[in-house]
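DOMAIN: structural biology
WANTED: fold as tokens
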Amino acid sequence: MADLPVPVPTIEFNLASTGMSKGIAQTHGPQMLVRGELAFGRLYVGGYAKNVTSPTSKAEAAAVIGVRTSAAGLDLAVSAAWKRAIRPSRGSDANALEVSGSVARRIGRMTPRISVVWSPDDLGATGRTIFAEASASYIVGKTLVASAALGRRQRTGGLNYTAWNAGMSWNPYKPVTLDLRYYDTDANAGQPFRPRLVASGRVRF
């Protein structure tokens, strides 16, 4: 019997001036996200927790299982997450399945990527939802990466919208990444959809 891969643990801490998910704001103020992962070769398991500003919940956590691999020069990833709303309001969905997949290919300094996130019944009042996004990153220098993305979200129980963002990431030290990014959507529907500049920092061990 083949030996099992040696597990590789990872933990990361993310702090953002505004929490963003699928192109729109999740918080009215700063968001702290903590993520842990244990990788066994191409397979990994993990989880995360973060604060949100929502009429149906104050925070969100999830357990995740996924696979990362490569084939024909493509980087492939697929994962399934079981999300849980923390302190959900009465009558809202407290649990949700979310399935994600992405494909990317590095071409010189540029890496285009296509990703899709689908849920049959999302948290809160939102039902079936799908978010498809095309993005690209470009290595400007040894520690500097520019990137942009364009995505579309279709959902029941919520507004459909197109979202885009562009920004720069700086990696001054191996475990540290700083990011400054502009977000906007085509929806004129209040705070979560309005344009904003978001600063964030990540420490990963």
Summary: The domain at 8-204 is CATH 2.40.160.160 (Porin).
